[in-house]
Amino acid sequence: MSTQHKSRVLRDPANPPLYLSKRARTNWIRNAEKELKNYRYKQQYPPFYIPDHCYRIFRVHKFTKSYPMDYVLEHFKHCCSYSIDTESDCDTYDIALIQIHSIPVELPAIVVLIELNHLPSIDSLLFSQIRLLFDFVFQSRNIIYYWGPLVVELESALPYDIFIFPLG
User: Fold this and answer.
1) What is the full DSSP assignment across 111-160?
2) N or C: which end of the chain has fewer CB within 10 A?
3) Can you give the pTM of this predicted structure?
4) Is 34 found in the same domain as 91?
5) Residue 11 belongs to what domain range?
6) Rounded mean pLDDT of 20-46?
7) What is the mean pLDDT of the chain?
8) 3-state helix, strand, coil in the chain (%, to 5)
9) Does 4 score more than 60 pLDDT?
10) pLDDT-derived band at 119, boundaries 50, 70, 90
11) What is the C-alpha to C-alpha distance for residues 111 and 100, in angstroms, rounded to an integer?
12) In what order do the strands lie in the sheet with 81-88?
């Protein structure tokens, strides 16, 4: 192990407090070992970093102008790989955000954050552009990476009418 300064919060798994019960002692040792392992990883490997010029982020909500969406649509039209994830409201657990990350052949990639609780009116140009974005993403020729079953992830977004099932 290196001679670099150790964090004050780093615990020694071999020296748990004496006052702990057997179960608490076991948990304390396990957690201390995890902390030590993570500390060693931090010393051994640099933090993962992606330079800003490798991606662009677009937030989509009712105040988004249509010209940035034109840029996004042009990019997505020529892309064939994407990753999709959703986030839920921490209080209601209702779907609140859809994140679509393009994985292009040439950088920059684009990350689109669609704020479902702040969508534009259904008859607006921006809403049509959002639908078109999903049409591009869900073309059958595309590869989509996702966490968990995609249908389950996106099913709760159906009432927003931004895409239709079946996908692709």
Assistant:
1) EEEEEGGGPPPTTSHHHHHHHHHHHHHT-TT-EEEESS-HHHHHHTTGGG
2) N
3) 0.72
4) no
5) 6-48
6) 93
7) 90
8) 40, 20, 45
9) no
10) very high
11) 6
12) 55-60, 109-115, 95-102, 81-88, 143-146
State whether 87 and 148 are in the same domain.
Answer: yes
Same domain, 90 and 122: yes
Question: Is residue 39 located within the same domain as residue 99?
Answer: no
Check residue 151 and give its pLDDT: 87
**Strand, coil or helix: what is 100?**
strand
Would you say residue 25 lies in a domain?
A: yes
**Residue 107 falls within a domain, yes or no?**
yes
Work out the number of other CB atoms within 10 angstroms of the CB of residue 3. Answer: 5
3-state secondary structure of 4: coil
Burial pattern 14-41, b for ≥16 Cβ within 10 A else e, equals eebeeeeeeeeeeebbeebeebbeebee
